[in-house]
UniProtKB/TrEMBL annotation:
It comes from the Bacteria. This is Glycosyltransferase RgtA/B/C/D-like domain-containing protein. The chain crosses the membrane at residues 84-102, 109-129, 157-186, 207-231, 274-294, 306-326. Keywords: Membrane, Transmembrane, Transmembrane helix.
Length: 554
C-alpha cells in the first residue's frame, strides 16, 4: 500500500509549483483591458471630484467606484504596484483558505490555495484585479469565521456581525454574489457540530439571532454607501439607472447578442455555455473531494464538506444569473471548486481509508490534467523571448503620445469606445472625462426604448451646447440582435460635418473640432502621415498643367 503522505506530497508539489511559476511570471503583466477603465473611474471620483451617476453615467454599483478609487490612490495605476496589490490579495485569500480548512489539515488548505491561484493566474493580465476576484477575499474571510467555530457552540455574535458586514460590502460591488453567503448562514444557524438534537425553541431563537446579526452587519456598508450617494445628490440618479437600464442590460449576453424573450431563447442562451462552465479548472479534483468527503465519519467534517458543495452550487447560480459567462464571472466558482478540491487531502480521510495505489494515481492524474499548461507555456515563452505583453495593439501608447504632444489643457476630450483603449489612454495622461458617458455601447441596443432614446438625446445635446475639442473614436464591440442598431445618424452627422480626422490607424482615430486653418491629417497603419504628401501632389499637378499650357502655346 502506498501511504497517503506520499501521494499527498506529490499532489501538493505539482499544484504549488505550477501556481508559483505563474505567480512569478505574472509580475510582468501590464495594466490592461477592464482594469484601467475601473481605475479611470476611481481617478474621476478621487482626483477630478466627480460623483458617479450624477456627473457621469455608469452601470457599476457604487461600491465598485469606491473600491477602485482606493486602488487608484494606492497604486497610481503603475503596473508593478498593481501586480503587488493583486498578488497580496491572492496571498491573503490563501491565508484565510488555510484557516477555513484548518480542521481538515494544513495540506488541504495548501492544495485549495494552489488550485485557486493556478486557476486565477491562468486567465492572464486581462483578468487581473477584477471585481469578482476582489470579492473572493471577503468570501474567504466569512468561510473562515463560520468554519472555525467550536464544535459545541454556534458562531459568536461578533463573527456573525462581521460576516454580515463582509456580505454587505460585496453587495455594494457585486450584488448577486450575496448568494454565496446563504449556505454559510444556514450552517451558522442550523448546525452545532456534533449535537444531534436541538430543542425547537432554541433552534428558532438561534435562527432569529443569526438573521438579526447578519442583516444588521449587512445594512452597515449599504447605508454608508447610500448615505454617500445621498450626500452628493446622486442617489436618485443611481436608482433611476438601476430601475430603467439594468433590465435592458440583463438581456445582453456575453457575445453582445440581445436575446429575444422566451423560454426557448433562454435555454439556447445557457446551453452553449453549460459544458465549458462545468469543465472549469480542477472540477474533476473537486468531484473527488466531495465524493470522498461524504464518507467521512466525523459529522463536523461531513457538514463542512456539504456546505462547500452548496457553495459551488450557489457560485454556479451566480454565473447563470449574470448571464454573460465572461471569464471573471467564474472566479467565485473557481474558488469554491478549489475548496472542494482541498477535501481530497482532508485529515478526516486518513483514519478511515487505507489509501491504495489506484486512489493515489487517480488524484495525481486528476491534478495533472487539470493544470492549465497552455497558459503557463504562453507566459514562459513571452518571458524567454524578452517580449512584453501587447496593450491593445499599441493604440493606447499611440493615442496617449499624440494627446500629450498636441492637446492643450483647455482641450476637452470625449471617448467613443468600450474596451479598446480610449479610456486607458485618458487614464494614462490623467485627462478628465468630457460629458457623462465613458462607454458608447449604451446607444446601440434597445434603441426603440425611451430610456435609450433619452441617453442619445443627452449625448447630442452635449455636442450642441459645447462641442468637445477632440473625439477618440475606437472600433469596439457593439450589441447586436433584437432591437439593436449600428446607426446613430445624429452623431455621425456631427462628426462628419464639424470634425476632421487628425490621426487614424486601424481600429482607432482622433478627430478634432473644425476651426480656421485646421488641416486634415491621416495616419496609415505604419504611422506615416500622408496629409503633407497630398499637398505636394497638388503642387506637382499644377506645375504639369503650366508646362502643358506653355508647350501648346509655342
Amino acid at each position: 500500500m502506498m501511504k497517503k503522505t506520499h501521494f499527498s506530497t506529490v499532489a501538493i508539489c505539482m499544484a504549488v509549483t505550477f501556481a508559483l511559476l505563474l505567480f512569478v511570471l505574472s509580475l510582468r503583466w501590464p495594466v490592461v483591458h477592464d482594469l484601467p477603465i475601473m481605475l479611470y473611474e476611481g481617478f474621476l471620483v478621487h482626483d477630478a471630484g466627480l460623483v458617479p451617476y450624477r456627473d457621469f453615467f455608469d452601470i457599476n454599483p457604487p461600491g465598485t467606484m469606491l473600491l477602485y478609487s482606493a486602488i487608484h490612490q494606492i497604486t497610481a495605476g503603475a503596473s508593478f504596484a498593481c501586480r503587488i496589490l493583486d498578488l497580496s490579495v491572492l496571498v491573503a485569500i490563501g491565508v484565510f483558505t488555510c484557516l477555513a480548512l484548518s480542521r481538515h489539515g494544513l495540506k488541504s488548505g495548501i492544495l485549495a490555495t494552489a488550485c485557486f491561484a493556478a486557476a486565477y493566474l491562468s486567465g492572464g493580465a486581462i483578468l487581473a484585479l477584477q471585481r469578482e476576484y476582489l470579492c473572493v477575499l471577503p468570501l474567504a474571510m466569512s468561510i473562515a469565521l463560520v468554519f472555525r467555530t467550536n464544535s459545541s457552540d454556534a458562531p459568536r455574535w461578533y463573527s456573525l456581525f462581521l460576516c454580515g458586514i463582509l456580505a454587505g460590502v460585496v453587495l455594494t460591488i457585486k450584488p448577486p454574489m450575496i448568494l454565496c453567503w446563504v449556505p454559510l448562514m444556514v450552517k451558522a444557524a442550523c448546525f452545532t457540530g456534533c449535537d444531534t438534537s436541538i430543542e425547537r425553541r432554541r433552534f428558532l431563537l438561534r435562527l432569529l439571532k443569526t438573521a438579526i446579526l447578519v442583516f444588521s452587519g449587512m445594512l452597515l456598508p449599504i447605508l454608508l454607501v447610500a448615505g454617500w450617494l445621498s450626500y452628493n445628490h446622486a442617489l436618485a440618479a443611481f436608482l433611476d439607472m438601476a430601475r430603467h437600464y439594468y433590465p435592458l442590460y440583463a438581456e445582453i449576453d456575453g457575445s453582445g447578442m440581445v436575446r429575444s424573450a422566451g423560454v426557448v431563447q433562454l435555454l439556447k442562451r445557457y446551453r452553449v455555455e453549460m459544458i465549458p462552465l462545468l469543465l472549469c479548472p480542477f472540477s474533476i479534483v473537486a468531484c473527488l473531494g466531495v465524493s470522498w468527503g461524504s464518507r467521512m465519519t466525523d459529522r463536523r467534517l461531513r457538514t463542512q464538506n456539504a456546505i462547500l458543495f452548496a457553495l459551488v452550487l450557489c457560485a454556479l447560480l451566480y454565473v447563470f444569473i449574470g448571464g454573460k459567462f465572461w471569464p471573471y464571472h467564474k472566479f467565485p466558482l473557481y474558488y469554491c471548486v478549489s475548496l472542494c478540491a482541498g477535501m481530497t487531502l482532508s485529515r478526516g480521510l486518513l483514519h478511515h481509508y487505507s489509501e491504495s495505489r489506484w486512489r493515489a494515481a487517480i488524484l495525481c492524474v486528476a491534478i495533472a490534467t487539470s493544470l492549465p499548461f497552455a497558459s503557463l507555456g504562453q507566459e514562459f515563452l513571452i518571458w524567454r523571448e524578452g517580449k512584453t505583453h501587447e496593450v491593445k495593439k499599441g493604440h493606447v501608447s499611440l493615442v496617449s503620445s499624440y494627446l500629450q504632444k498636441n492637446a492643450t489643457l483647455s482641450d476637452t476630450i470625449m471617448p467613443l469606445d468600450v474596451t479598446s483603449g480610449a479610456i486607458h489612454a485618458l487614464y494614462k495622461i490623467r485627462r478628465p472625462l468630457y460629458g457623462r458617458f465613458i462607454y458608447d455601447f449604451h446607444f446601440y441596443h434597445h434603441t426603440s426604448t425611451q430610456y435609450i432614446l433619452d441617453l442619445r438625446k443627452e449625448l447630442i445635446s452635449q455636442f450642441r451646447d459645447d462641442k468637445p475639442s477632440l473625439v477618440l473614436k475606437f472600433e469596439s464591440w457593439r450589441p447586436h440582435g433584437a432591437g439593436c442598431s449600428d446607426e446613430f445618424s445624429e452623431l455621425d452627422a456631427i462628426l462628419r460635418e464639424d470634425y476632421v480626422t487628425v490621426l487614424q490607424t486601424k481600429g482607432c482615430s482622433i478627430m478634432r473640432r473644425k476651426t480656421t486653418g485646421t488641416r486634415r491629417v491621416e495616419e496609415t497603419r505604419s504611422g506615416f502621415r500622408v496629409g503633407s504628401m497630398r499637398w505636394l501632389g497638388h503642387v506637382f499637378k499644377l506645375r504639369l498643367l503650366r508646362l502643358s499650357y506653355f508647350g501648346t502655346s509655342f
